[in-house]
């Protein structure tokens, strides 16, 4: 947090620390440091840097959950933040799942979400901790299924092509991805901006004016480069692994389109002799016609001697 990172980027580092620790066995020396990352992650869900404790002596998980449930502005958003942490860290899951069960307010809210998602098949599953864990496992399986579909949809966008057919097919997909509830706010906003770049590409195709086309191409490239710079400064896992390659593909495709645009806009000069006029003038000159055409206007220039 000392680097003034975007909160979603900081959360990714906290999750990464818990994930790495959970995959390494036989470690006890750094467990408190990992717990500190988990606690800071959960306090970060208030979206207020001042509330994230940076000292070494942090509140316990019990105190933390009391603060979360009593003060958090959105228990629903809190739940999905917790999901983002525990599905990627067995270490965090072991320590947090029981806390969620013991906190009646949070437990009831989670059970409501499970019921809305059609996960509860028997009312008895709401009454025992073991049943709660089984519901949680079902939720995780569905979470990972949705995550895999999200990645499939994003990878389809990597085939970007500045053609009417591709854009008409894939702009709605990009807008659907924006609504995906498993996205972090920063990733969602970046995908929304990518969909706007798609709209600019459509504007390129909807005009025949060279100047207007070139303006829109430059605009799409500028916005793509700006977004790439922001990802470098505030990375997230999804942005680095999925959005960054997509943006590079967009940039390359628009560069190729612009090269073709420049090539087509070059005047094509032709030289021909007038019919039945193959004699020289008294000054020793021969008449000829020179015409200049380009791919857009197809205009013929004045004839010259």
Report on the structure:
The radius of gyration is 30 Å and the shape is elongated. Helices cover 65% and strands 3% of the residues. Strands 1-2 form a two-stranded antiparallel sheet. The N and C termini lie far apart (74 Å). It is mainly alpha-helical and 305 residues long.
Search tags:
65% helix, mainly alpha
Secondary structure elements and their pairing?
Blueprint: H1 7-23, H2 31-44, H3 61-71, H4 75-86, H5 90-102, H6 104-116, H7 129-157, H8 164-178, H9 185-205, H10 210-233, H11 237-265, E1 268-272, E2 289-293
Antiparallel strand pairs: 1-2
Percentage of residues in strands: under 5%
Alpha-beta content class: mainly alpha
What kind of assembly state do the chains in view correspond to?
Answer: single chain
N-end to C-end Cα span? 74 Å
Task: Please outline what is shown here.
The protein has eleven helices and two strands, in the order αααααααααααββ. With 305 residues, the protein is mainly α.
């Amino acid at each position: 947090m000392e680097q003034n990172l975007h909160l979603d980027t900081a959360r990714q580092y906290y999750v990464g620390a818990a994930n790495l620790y959970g995959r390494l066995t036989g470690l006890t020396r750094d467990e408190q440091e990992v717990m500190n990352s988990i606690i800071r992650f959960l306090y970060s869900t208030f979206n207020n840097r001042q509330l994230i404790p940076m000292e070494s002596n942090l509140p316990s998980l019990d105190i933390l959950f009391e603060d979360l449930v009593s003060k958090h502005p959105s228990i629903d958003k809190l739940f999905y933040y917790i999901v983002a942490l525990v599905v990627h860290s067995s270490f965090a899951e072991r320590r947090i799942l029981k806390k969620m069960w013991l906190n009646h307010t949070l437990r009831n809210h989670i059970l409501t979400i499970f019921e809305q998602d059609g996960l509860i098949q028997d009312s008895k599953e709401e009454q025992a901790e073991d049943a709660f864990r089984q519901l949680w496992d079902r939720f995780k399986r569905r979470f990972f299924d949705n995550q895999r579909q999200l990645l499939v949809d994003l990878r389809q966008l990597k085939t970007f092509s500045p053609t009417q057919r591709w854009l008409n097919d894939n702009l709605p997909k990009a807008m659907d991805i924006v609504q995906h509830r498993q996205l972090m706010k920063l990733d969602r906003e970046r995908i929304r901006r990518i969909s706007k770049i798609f709209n600019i590409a459509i504007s390129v195709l909807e005009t025949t004016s060279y100047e207007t086309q070139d303006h829109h191409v430059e605009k799409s490239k500028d916005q793509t480069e700006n977004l790439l710079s922001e990802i470098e400064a505030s990375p997230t896992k999804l942005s680095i692994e999925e959005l960054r390659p997509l943006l590079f593909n967009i940039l390359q495709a628009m560069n190729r389109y612009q090269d073709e645009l420049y090539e087509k806009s070059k005047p094509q000069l032709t030289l021909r002799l007038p019919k039945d006029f193959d004699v020289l003038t008294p000054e020793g000159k021969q008449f000829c016609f020179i015409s200049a055409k380009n791919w857009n206007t197809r205009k013929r220039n004045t004839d010259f001697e």
